[in-house]
Amino acid sequence: MASIGSFLAMIAAPVAKRVLTGLGVGVITYAGLDSALGVIQNAVINNLGGMSGDLANFFALAGGNQVIGITLGALAARVTMATLTRLGRLN
Description:
Blueprint: H1 2-49, H2 53-61, H3 64-90
Helix pairs in contact: 1-3
């Protein structure tokens, strides 16, 4: 029974180290890139707020709001995929 316990303890330490390292890198990467995306989103919204009413109506009629939403969504998806890929390489 003691040999099984020591064997499990010997295996658990490196596995736990890899998991915690991977999670730490992933969380830090995701938090940094999420913050950068938030800055971009706020800049776009602030710049759109400075438009005149007629131009804002034309922009909305042309589908500009959807374009911005799709573009920011694509950036967020790319960040997520890059983070997941990096985590896969660490293990």
